Amino acid sequence: MRRSIWYLGVAAAGTLVITSTFALVPAEASTGPSAAALAVARQVLGASDGWAADGTGTTGGSTADDAHVFVAHNRSELVAALGGNNATNGSDATPKVVFVSGGIDGNVDDNNNPLSCADYADPAYSLDAFLATYDPAVWGRTTKPSGPLEDARVRSTKNQAARVNINIGSNVSVLDRSRKCTADSTART
């Protein structure tokens, strides 16, 4: 029986945002993608074949060698497959194919332990102080929050964004191993 996959996307330089449910595992015969899955991953998208192929088309990771075909089961594996350093992965143009196996939680630390709001909070931020200060009964409804607490809240959201946004360089194809569909009906985004 032919195993098929759902195609998540071919990324030109960009960012994959993981809002919930992502050691590097190179694709090997026992755990790696099937020949059919690799055939889909190595397809070149022609002109105007989805948003990633707007214009003249895109190759994604179609030219990735076997050493750059990975299966990621969690956030740490995904970041490693994309180059190893989320801060610089966006500028890494090495061709890669990454198969995502299962759900990937982006809201975890480097050891895949869950993170909470407190882990992202700027030292100057306090939820209780924020709610008390900007309560509409106190602050009003016509003026947007501003000041040190609002600045700390914004820094806290940037801390979280830096963690849950996964940077993807050019020449990368990311595919989902867990969906069932045919190569002909593959979703391209």
Report on this model:
With 189 residues, this protein is an alpha/beta fold. It folds into 2 domains: 6-109 and 165-183, no CATH class; 117-161, no CATH class. The chain is built from 6 helices and 7 strands. The strands form 2 sheets. It has a 5-stranded mixed beta sheet with strand order 1-7-5-4-3, with helices on one face. Strand 4, helix 2 and strand 5 (96-100) form a beta-alpha-beta unit. Mean pLDDT is 80; it is low at 1-15, 17-30 and 180-189.
**How many β-strands, per DSSP?**
7
Contiguous runs where pLDDT drops below 50 for at least 5 residues? 1-15, 17-30, 180-189
Structural class: alpha/beta
Oligomerization state: single chain
Q: Share of helix among residues? A: 10-25%
List SSEs in N-to-C order. EEEHEHEHHHHEE
Biggest sheet: strands, sense, closure? 5 strands, mixed
Query: DSSP strand (E) fraction?
Result: 15-25%
Taken from the alpha-carbon principal axes, the silhouette is elongated
- Main sheet strand line-up: 1-7-5-4-3
End-to-end distance: 27 Å
Averaged pLDDT = 80
Number of continuous helical runs: 6
Calculate Rg over CA atoms: 20 Å
Number of separate domains: 2
Task: Give short descriptive properties of this protein.
single chain, two-stranded antiparallel ribbon, 24% helix, 2 domains, 189 residues, 7 strands, disordered C terminus
